[in-house]
What we know:
Blueprint: E1 4-13, E2 16-21, E3 24-29, H1 32-35, E4 44-53, E5 58-63, H2 66-76, H3 83-92, H4 95-104, H5 107-111, H6 118-128, H7 149-159, H8 164-174, H9 181-192
Antiparallel strand pairs: 1-2, 1-4, 2-3, 4-5
Amino acid sequence: MxxxxxxxxxxxxxxxxxxxxxxxxxxxxxxxxxxxxxPAVGEAVVLHTHLVVREDxxxxxxxxxxxxxxxxxxxxxxxxxxxxxxxAVLSGISVxxxxxxxxxxxxxxxxxxxxxxxxxxxxxxxxxxxKAGVGEVALPGAPAAPVGALAEARSALASLGYxxxxxxxxxxxxxxDGMSTEAIIQEAxxxxxx
Length: 194
């Protein structure tokens, strides 16, 4: 895996840039947040990289900061989010603002990013809540969930295409103290099919 490149910037035309590392030219795709931090052509640059290997291509993505690279990796782990969508997110919002959106549950802000639809934005917010430090919000009188069971069930239902409000309604209706993730999902799906 190529994790970091240090060399001379030869060309930059968003989203591609060309970096010379000891005579080898690396084509790297980068988000606009990285482009804004690049030096002038001909100057030294260091990029944190992520290599994606597919059947038809090997793609190298570069980032100005480790935080950008980390968020990129988190994003591409989400079902339906590939490198192009992850680059679009990083090009449209800063890492700090992204985590703020996730903590606040403001998927509407992500829809404004080109290439991000409502369903994808909702999935990004829902599936990244745990990484953003957002715990489950207990409703008054609601039983406490076993650590992660309710959150995991909600994430699984969202990945199946259910909207966040529907996920909340279904899980609230079926959850009983001590239920496993699998039990919550099974009961929620039975309820959804009624």
